[in-house]
Amino acid sequence: MRHALALADMAERIDDEVPVGAVLVGPDGALVAEGWNRNIVEHDPTSHAEIVAMRQAGMRLGNHRLLGCTLYVTLEPCAMCAMAMVHARVARVVYAASDPKTGACGSVFDLLADPRHNHRVDVRGGVLADEASRRLSNYFRRKRGKPPL
C-alpha cells in the first residue's frame, strides 16, 4: 500500500490528478503493474488508477484474466473499477480509504460480494486509510484555496 500511496502522490504532482494510486501484484507477490489516476490528463473517464494498472497487467501478462492477482489501491474502487476486477478475475482487492460517495466495495454498493456474479473478489479495506484520506482531503482543500489538514 505504501507504493500505491507514492503513486497517488505522483498523480497529484505530475498530472494534477486526484491522488489515487494502484499496484497489482501477482500470486507470488511480485509487482505486475501499477497506475495512478489519469482520467483528466487523458480526457478518458475510464482511466482510473485501477483500470490503468489492470490494462498494464493484461499487456504484460498477455492475458485479459488476472488470475490470482491482488490489487492494492488508495481509494475504495467505484462501480466501474469493481466490475472490471470481476471481469478480470482479480483474486483480491485491498484498499485504503473508503469512498462514501461512490465506493462499490461496501460503502455505497457492495458489487464484489454480489452472489449473482460468476467470480468473487476478496475485499479488505482500511489499510493506511488515514494517510490516504488525508492526501485526498488536502488535494481538494488545495483546489479550493484552503490550508492543508
Any overview of this molecule?
The chain is an alpha/beta fold and 149 residues long. It is built from 4 helices and 5 strands, in the order αββαβαββα. The protein has helices at residues 2-15, 49-61, 79-88, 129-143, and strands at 21-25, 31-36, 70-75, 92-97, 122-124. Strands 2-1-3-4-5 form a 5-stranded mixed beta sheet. Helix 1 packs parallel to helix 4. The longest helix is centred in the last third of the chain and has 15 residues, at 129-143. It is globular, with a radius of gyration of 15 Å. The chain starts with a helix and ends in a 6-residue tail after the last helix.
Short description:
35% of the residues lie in helices and 17% in strands.
**Uncertain runs:** none
Distance between the termini: 21 Å
Q: Which oligomerization state do the chains in this entry correspond to?
A: single chain
In percent terms, what proportion of residues is strand? Answer: 15-25%
Most strands sheet: 5 strands, mixed
